[in-house]
């Protein structure tokens, strides 16, 4: 009886234990991501040949306590390496883990290598060579706390590499994880199986290998034991011959049909190539198609098993949500009475199926934690009730009230919904054919999972009501920004969209930044600036992307000066002007700290638009700026540039902002609150979105 150890992905330990026991293993002990067992050499060979779940099979050579560097060396030197490495052979050492003494895995591997070389040199008078890429014998060492385990790798390349995969799409399932999914699904190996998002066909091919009783290691050309001194080639060849007979018989007798489809014809080509290489192409039928085109290909009841895409970026989520919503509808409509098993790293997406799982399993796709959920579609399954019906009704009413108004105003971008219902706490903006959904932070009294579920329901309902597809829905998390955070990139698509706002054409970027480049609530203010600007010298301070400058220039401004601290947004502002056929020396763009710029000598202006941040502590600014505390200081500096008949339009987004009218009067200025008049129809429900003031010299009033 020899001691062995089999590794596997986390979550498969109990399945692997059952499999190894079936293959003749004894005294099995499960650990995290592996199973220790005992058996004959034949048992280990059978595990290498037949295990669908193991990643590696290793012969345990030594296990000892290690508290010092010398313990490591002496323990490794005590192993009878002459029984495992023949003269002239190469070897390698892989070291993992560590403790207080050995913190560097390369050093640990080096010390074991030294022990092996010294022992064999002493016994044979020659030093074996190390080959890290293709060694004859591969040694694995793992140090946990103060216990070191040294094993000999019998597998060679990881056992999930069956030998049939010619090509693969992005992020394919490992073959042993695919096998585990099939086993956990309860598939009986004879009923029809459908994978509607089959990619390069791993689930289908692993199912075919199971259905035909083909050993998953039969196609492999190389194992770790091939050059090992203890290898019994006659025994191995007899086991391979037995497996070949079983595979041939199984393929002839198999009547199982496996169906796959995918919208990517390229990866379907990979599926066909891989199935041919595995020798099971005759069992697998694949066709190109989207989920919306999915139909049940079999008259028999069977299993639908798949690995739907689950993405890692927020920008992918709406399309994935729509995909899962469609999948849930197709399952209820086309697959009544079927068993369904789906794996995902996003339980939230699986919840969008609107199905109740019978069983759930925790598995790992590499380091990524996933859930496998098993469902049974009822024989009388009916369409799921619409999600978030109250919200959907409100959104529908808002759209009906706003669409005609927006068309009449000549605007492409407007707000459809702004937390109208407290339990659906988000804002939804239309940008032509796109929707931007901004999630507001939920109150601390609402559990995170509940707030998240409501937000996903809101997104689903929005797509259903508007008919906008997931690839045109942009999700953003709205949080209070400080300093330069407002300028930080969220993505790198550089995807620009031209929109219309009254007589102005403007560029927005829906993906790359938290804001899109267009503050929708300031639309009436920009229009008003355009009406006031003819023949005037106009200053746009804290200018952002220069949209107010565009309106002023289109309104016939004599000159415009656009000042902002961000080089990125100033370049954006220049693009906005060029888009409208505007340019020339009369339009200046200045990158500067706005407060510092005001302290320098400069021109006077007839019309100013100033929209400072609520708070800023940018590294480029000398001091932190707080609009409530510092607005009089700012307005005082602005007044030195304001001509006697000039007008300053001052706006900010601080809720409950209070203008210090007395201090303003001491500056010789008077202010008129025009907030109500400056709010557009689509922001009527949110009177605190901004506040706005017209400020003049008191002698004008």
TrEMBL record:
<dbReference type="Pfam" id="PF22020">
    <property type="entry name" value="RlmL_1st"/>
</dbReference>
<protein>
    <recommendedName>
        <fullName>Ribosomal RNA large subunit methyltransferase K/L</fullName>
        <ecNumber>2.1.1.173</ecNumber>
        <ecNumber>2.1.1.264</ecNumber>
    </recommendedName>
</protein>
<comment type="similarity">
    <text>Belongs to the methyltransferase superfamily. RlmKL family.</text>
</comment>
<keyword id="KW-0963">Cytoplasm</keyword>
<dbReference type="Pfam" id="PF01170">
    <property type="entry name" value="UPF0020"/>
</dbReference>
<dbReference type="InterPro" id="IPR054170">
    <property type="entry name" value="RlmL_1st"/>
</dbReference>
<keyword id="KW-0808">Transferase</keyword>
<dbReference type="InterPro" id="IPR053943">
    <property type="entry name" value="RlmKL-like_Mtase_CS"/>
</dbReference>
<keyword id="KW-0694">RNA-binding</keyword>
<comment type="function">
    <text>Specifically methylates the guanine in position 2445 (m2G2445) and the guanine in position 2069 (m7G2069) of 23S rRNA.</text>
</comment>
<dbReference type="Pfam" id="PF10672">
    <property type="entry name" value="Methyltrans_SAM"/>
</dbReference>
<dbReference type="InterPro" id="IPR019614">
    <property type="entry name" value="SAM-dep_methyl-trfase"/>
</dbReference>
<keyword id="KW-0698">rRNA processing</keyword>
<feature type="domain" description="THUMP">
    <location>
        <begin position="43"/>
        <end position="154"/>
    </location>
</feature>
<keyword id="KW-0949">S-adenosyl-L-methionine</keyword>
<dbReference type="InterPro" id="IPR029063">
    <property type="entry name" value="SAM-dependent_MTases_sf"/>
</dbReference>
<dbReference type="InterPro" id="IPR004114">
    <property type="entry name" value="THUMP_dom"/>
</dbReference>
<dbReference type="Pfam" id="PF02926">
    <property type="entry name" value="THUMP"/>
</dbReference>
<dbReference type="InterPro" id="IPR017244">
    <property type="entry name" value="23SrRNA_methyltr_KL"/>
</dbReference>
<dbReference type="InterPro" id="IPR000241">
    <property type="entry name" value="RlmKL-like_Mtase"/>
</dbReference>
<keyword id="KW-0489">Methyltransferase</keyword>
């Amino acid at each position: 009886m020899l001691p062995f150890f089999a590794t596997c992905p986390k979550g498969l330990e109990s399945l692997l234990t059952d499999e190894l026991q079936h293959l003749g293993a004894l005294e099995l002990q499960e650990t995290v991501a592996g199973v220790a067992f005992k058996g004959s050499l034949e048992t280990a060979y059978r595990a290498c040949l037949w295990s669908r779940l193991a990643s590696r099979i290793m012969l345990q050579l030594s296990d000892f306590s290690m508290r010092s560097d010398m313990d490591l060396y002496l323990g490794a030197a005590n192993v009878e390496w002459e029984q495992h490495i023949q003269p002239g052979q190469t070897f390698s050492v892989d070291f993992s883990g560590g403790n207080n003494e050995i913190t560097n895995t390369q050093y640990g591997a080096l010390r074991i290598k030294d022990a092996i070389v010294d022992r064999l040199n002493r016994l044979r008078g020659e030093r074996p060579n190390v080959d890290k890429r293709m060694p004859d014998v591969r040694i694995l060492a793992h140090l946990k706390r103060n216990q070191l385990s040294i094993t000999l790798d019998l597998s060679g390349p990881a056992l999930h590499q069956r030998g049939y995969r010619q090509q693969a799409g992005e992020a394919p399932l490992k073959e042993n994880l695919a096998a585990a999914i099939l086993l956990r699904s309860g598939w009986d190996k004879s009923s029809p199986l459908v994978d509607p998002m089959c990619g390069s066909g791993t689930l289908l091919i692993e199912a075919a290998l199971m259905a035909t009783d083909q050993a998953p290691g039969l196609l492999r050309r190389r194992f770790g034991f091939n050059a090992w001194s203890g290898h019994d080639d006659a025994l191995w060849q007899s086991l391979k011959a037995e497996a070949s007979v079983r595979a041939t018989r199984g393929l002839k007798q198999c009547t199982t049909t496996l169906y796959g489809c995918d919208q990517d014809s390229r990866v379907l080509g990979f599926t066909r190539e891989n199935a041919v290489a595995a020798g099971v192409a005759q069992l697998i039928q694949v066709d190109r198609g989207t989920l919306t085109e999915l139909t049940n290909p079999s008259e028999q009841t069977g299993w639908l098993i798949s690995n739907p895409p689950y993405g890692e970026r927020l920008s992918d989520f709406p399309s994935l949500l729509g995909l899962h919503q469609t999948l849930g509808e197709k399952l209820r409509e086309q697959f009544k009475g079927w068993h369904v098993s789906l794996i995902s790293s996003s339980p939230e997406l699986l919840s969008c199926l609107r199905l109740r799982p019978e069983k759930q399993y925790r598995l790992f796709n590499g380091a990524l934690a996933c859930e496998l959920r098993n469902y049974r579609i009822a024989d009388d399954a009916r369409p799921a009730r619409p999600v978030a019906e109250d919200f959907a009704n409100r959104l529908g009413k808002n759209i009906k009230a706003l669409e005609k108004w927006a068309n009449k105003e000549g605007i492409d971008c407007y707000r459809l919904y702004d937390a109208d219902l407290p339990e659906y706490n988000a804002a939804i903006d239309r940008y032509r054919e796109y929707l931007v959904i901004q999630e507001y932070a939920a109150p601390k009294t609402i559990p995170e999972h509940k707030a998240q579920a409501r937000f996903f329901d809101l997104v689903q309902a929005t797509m259903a009501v508007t008919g906008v597809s997931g690839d045109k829905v942009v999700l953003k998390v709205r949080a209070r920004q400080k300093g330069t955070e407002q300028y930080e990139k969220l993505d790198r698509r550089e995807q620009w969209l031209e929109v219309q706002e009254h007589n102005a054409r403007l560029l927005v970027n829906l993906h790359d930044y938290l804001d899109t480049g267009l503050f929708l609530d300031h639309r009436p203010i920009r229009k008003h600036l355009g009406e006031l600007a003819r023949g005037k010298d106009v200053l746009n301070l804290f200018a952002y992307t220069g949209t107010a400058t565009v309106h002023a220039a289109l309104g016939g401004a004599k000159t415009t000066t656009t000042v902002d601290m961000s080089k990125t947004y100033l370049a954006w502002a220049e693009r906005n002007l060029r888009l409208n056929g505007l340019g020339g020396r009369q339009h200046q763009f200045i990158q500067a700290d706005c407060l510092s710029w005001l302290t320098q000598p400069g021109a006077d202006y007839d019309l100013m638009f100033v929209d400072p941040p609520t708070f800023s502590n940018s590294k480029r600014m000398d001091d932190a700026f707080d609009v409530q505390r510092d607005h009089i200081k700012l307005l005082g500096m602005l007044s030195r540039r304001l001509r006697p008949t000039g007008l300053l339009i001052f706006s900010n987004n601080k809720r409950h902002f209070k203008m210090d009218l007395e201090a303003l009067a001491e500056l010789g200025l008077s202010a008129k609150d025009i907030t109500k008049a400056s709010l557009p129809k689509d922001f009527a429900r949110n009177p605190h979105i901004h506040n706005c003031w017209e400020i003049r010299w008191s002698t004008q009033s």
